[in-house]
Amino acid sequence: MKFVTYASATGPRVGVMDSDGVHDIGFDGDMISFIEAGAPAGSRVAVAEARLLAPLRPRSMRDFIAFEGHYKKSYERLGLATPDQWYQVPAYYKGMPDTVIGPGAEIPWPSYSDYVDCELELAAVIGHRGKNIAVENAADLIFGYTIWNDVSARDTQKVEMPVGAGPGKAKDWDGSNVMGPCIVTSDEIDGQSLAMALRVNGETWTEENSANMHYTFAQMIAHISQDQTVYPGEVFGSGTPPGGCGIELDKHLQAGDVIELDIEGIGILRNTVGAQT
Predict the structure, then answer these.
(1) Which of 44, 98, 133, 186 qualifies as a FRET site for 275, CA 20 to 30 Å off?
(2) Domain ranges in the chain with CATH number 3.90.850.10
């Protein structure tokens, strides 16, 4: 099923999206509460002209670097060498849940950057609590998948990365993470075999497949759950496939650009870049 969060007169509501549009499912709580409750089925009421929000405010956000081609090329563009340790552990950085916006929202341009970039990513949403999970069981913790546009200030990132602490303000400003348009449950799609595409103003920048990830979501979950509990509503990002961002292609976004992240079985996450401040 495709679950969404939409704007209502009383605040955000959980709904389901199908060929007939969005339907409210009678749940009084947010998406994380809905997932924790076991995604209870309720009576459906059609919602006219529903405005979609980000499907959830993640409990936490971990963004991995699972595609080798992107890692090598983007590090080269940032003037950095690819360390051998990348092949030993699924590395990640932590994002800020309060920065998440949804489909159709304008992406704000941070005042401290002249080089804003988009990043195509597949994201797994955790559905069950777990700790010390074996790799062979880890995929069972996934509730579903959504699309994540990990917007980046590349000039800021180039300064931060040599310090060795990972990206900070290069990834963190209000509206710097976009998710949506929905969460598709894991019984409907295989997150390890999905076609992925990025288009900017209708021009295709990349066409890839999640099957080419060096690390699987199961490996990521098993790694994180070592001596640490993972909870429903946490989000794990795949990182960007080769060509899934401007820095690899020497392309720069401009104000007014329309970004479309298209992932098989989930849909299209479409947003416009705001004016440079």
Answers:
(1) 98
(2) 60-273
